[in-house]
Amino acid sequence: MGSPIPVFFCAGLRPEAKGLCPAVPAMAVELTKKFSLLPPGATRRAASEENGLYLGLGGTFRRCFLDPAWIALAFLSHRVMPSPLKFGFHDFLNAQPLLVPLEKTAREAGFEIVKDVPARLADRLHAGELDLAMIPSIEYLSHTDRYRLVPGACIASRGAVDTVLLVMRGGVESVRTVALDERSRTSATLLRILFEDVFPPEVQYSRTHPDLAHMMRTCDAALVIGDQGFSARANNEGWTVIDLSQRWWEQTGCAFVHAVVAVRREVKLTPEGLEVIADAPAQGRAAMDAIVGDQVEKTGLEESVVRDYLENKILYTLGEEEVAGLTLFRDLCFQKNILNVRPELEWASL
Ligand SMILES: C=C(O[C@@H]1C=C(C(=O)O)C=C[C@H]1O)C(=O)O
Description:
The protein has helices at 5-13, 25-35, 42-48, 68-80, 96-109, 118-126, 137-142, 186-195, 212-218, 228-234, 244-252, 271-286, 288-299, 303-313, 320-335; strands spanning 53-57, 60-64, 85-89, 111-115, 132-136, 147-157, 165-168, 177-181, 204-208, 221-224, 240-243, 256-264, 315-318. By secondary structure, the chain is of the alpha/beta class. It has three domains: 5-80, no CATH class; 85-156 and 255-335, Periplasmic binding protein-like II (D-Maltodextrin-Binding Protein, domain 2, 3-Layer(aba) Sandwich), CATH 3.40.190.10; 165-252, D-Maltodextrin-Binding Protein, domain 2, CATH 3.40.190. The longest helix has 16 residues, at 271-286. The chain starts with a helix and ends in a 15-residue tail after the last helix. Ligand ISJ is lined by residues 90, 92, 94, 118, 136, 155, 161, 163-164, 184-187, 225-226, 229, 258-259.
C-alpha cells in the first residue's frame, strides 16, 4: 500500500470531506503538503475512483474511493509518517556522485532535496529553512552549537582537486585585492590560512559573482570553486594558478574536507535517513559510468577529465583521514582566530 494511504485517510475521516463537499481551504493545504510523499500515479488513481469521498488536490477536491481496510492501515501509517525533511545540496559536478543516489532514495527516506549553492545552503540551514544540508565545512565548525555532523558522506580531497583555485595575475607579493567566489565559505577560509602570511598585509578581499574574467579585470587575484575551476585553467591568460587543496596537502599531509552534511540539532534523523546518507558514496561509485556519461553531456568537458575528477580527485566518504583533516582545519582556524572556540565534532545519531 505504502505512502498514498495517509492522504485517503485524511480526507476520509474529516467530516467536512465526506460526500460532495465544497473545497475546504485549510484541508486542501494539509493534503497538498502530504502529496509530496505520494508516488507518481497515486493522485490519478484517487481521482479515477467512483463513489467515494473527496480528496484535496492543489486547492481543489477530487472524488476518491476509500476501502475500510485502507482506513485501518492508513491510520497506522499516518501516525508514523512525518513530513519530509528539507535536505539542501549543491549541484556542482563534484556533488553528483552523492546527489544522484540521494535523489533516488530521498522520498522513501523522508527527504525532500533542495538545491542551491554552498554559501546559500549554509545561510538557509542557519535560518531554519532547511533541516539538514551539505554545507561548507567551515560553516559546520562555526556553528557546532546549532548543528551535528552527519556521518558517512562529505566532499573531500587529498592533494590536487582541480577546482579550488587561486588565480593570480602576478606573484603573491604583488596581490593587493582578491575577488572571492561568493558561493564559497570553506575555500575562502582556506585561502586565509594558507596565504595570510604570504600576501602583503594590506590585502583586501571582496565577494563577487564567479566570473573569472571579470574578477581578474577588477582584482589582482581570484578564488574560484566548483565547475568554473575547469575553465580557469583552459582560459588562462598567462595567470598563475594554485590548487589550494594541493597546497594544503603539501603543507599538512592531510585530506581536506570541503563540505559536510550538517543537521540542525533539533531535527531527528530516522535510521533510514542516516543509512541512505552513509550509503550514498557506495551507491555513487556503483552508478559512476552513468553519472560520468550524463555529466560529460551536461558540462561539455572531456570524459577523461570528468572521470578523473569524480573517481580520483573528489573523495566522498567521511572516513578517519577526512576527520583528521577536518580536525586540523578546525585547529588552524582556531589559532588564526577565525573560530573563537575549538569545538568538539558531535555526530548525529538515532
Ligand atoms: C572541491 C570543491 O569544494 C566545494 C567548496 C566549498 C566552499 O569553498 O565553501 C563548498 C562546497 C564544496 O563542494 C569545489 O567546489 O571545487
